[in-house]
Amino acid sequence: MFNQLRLNAWSMGVRNKLSLPLRVELWNGQRVDFSAETPRVTIRVPNAQALRYLLSPSLYNLGRAYVEGAIEVHGRAADMIAIVNALARATLKRHGRFRLGLPGLGRSRSRDAAAVRYHYDVSNDFYGAWLDPGMVYSCAYFEDGNEDLATAQRKKIDHILNKIELRPGHTLLDIGCGWGTLVIRAAQRYGAHCVGVTLSENQTRLAREQVERAGMQHLVEIRLQDYRDVGGQFDRITSVGMFEHVGVRNLPAYFARINALLAPDGVAMNHGLTTTDVECRAAPYGGGKFIQRYVFPHGELAHLGAVVRAMQEGGLEVRDVENLRRHYARTCALWTENFEAHAEQIKLLTDPRRFRIWHVYLAGCAYAFKHDWIGLYQVVCGKAGRDPATIPWSRRYMYS
């Protein structure tokens, strides 16, 4: 009865502030609608104990309740995320107790490897069900805005290779190579000698198979290896969607390692997620806490300012910065559409809990990019203090 009274008071307070296409269905048959509009999302609360998630509707609380099966949520993921965010904004503080602890503490190579395996070693078929045919799991590049996902991913890779001015005979290291698409493209287009490293066994296996299918074994090597164990020097280095796993406090050492691996006149490019919070706090309303627990264990996002500083501390000079936030919002929206279009197939490839995690995670990322909670920057750099004559006069070469 007490929870029922709290729910009545809470729902009345929300409806006085918001009109949402939301319906809440209780275990006793009661329904609470939050507008006169036909509900686009329905939350089913199976017992009185589960009401606590709804009465404190942070992104973490409701996300956790959905993932663990404590409540049922029905509707399109994009609608679910929009409504849950509206509830959180109306009833909670933006940060407060959902702020993460000090970044970078307690990290180790074994923990890093375990975190990567948790996220990427679900199964290759799982990712193949909703990614583009090239299996590119990073922000696409919509040059005109109307490209399909496969075209935009190919354009992203070509955009990166143009930015680093890759040339025939160059050596290229791709840190966090995923399923190998970038290094294969670099070998095919430029005849570059490429090494791709990843900590994911599933990615390593499929990437090697794709290298063989492309007939690029003589130019491309895929290694199951930590980037800190790579030796030698490379003319070009790329890191796409990997440095989020490094830890904010470890970024200077990460960039110093890239510096050590980079040839004297080499060019590197880091493509990665950033937070728009200048204090490097987690995404608001408990969204960051949800991501850390269920999606990217030990993942941390730095503000762009912290990234530039860490590059300088690592001995690198920033030469070009491009914001692709709009592109990632579009990418995640297309991934979400693909995921929902192939939902029945995906349910056969994983367990219900992980299905629910990715269902809300992809749509949540699209929302976060759209609303400027997180960003995506490509940062081109070279060794600090080099002769400026080696740096192009303009950005025209990137678009040739």
From TrEMBL:
Active site as annotated: C365
GO terms of biological process kind: lipid biosynthetic process; methylation
All copies of domain DUF7884, residue ranges: 14-93
Keywords from the named record: Lipid metabolism, Methyltransferase, S-adenosyl-L-methionine, Transferase
Pfam families, sorted: CMAS, DUF7884
Keyword Mitochondrion on entry: no
InterPro entries for this protein: CFA/CMAS, CMAS, DUF7884, SAM-dependent_MTases_sf
Gene Ontology MF terms in the entry: methyltransferase activity
Family that this chain belongs to: Belongs to the CFA/CMAS family.
Protein name per UniProt: Class I SAM-dependent methyltransferase
Biological source species: Massilia glaciei
Lineage: Bacteria, Pseudomonadati, Pseudomonadota, Betaproteobacteria, Burkholderiales
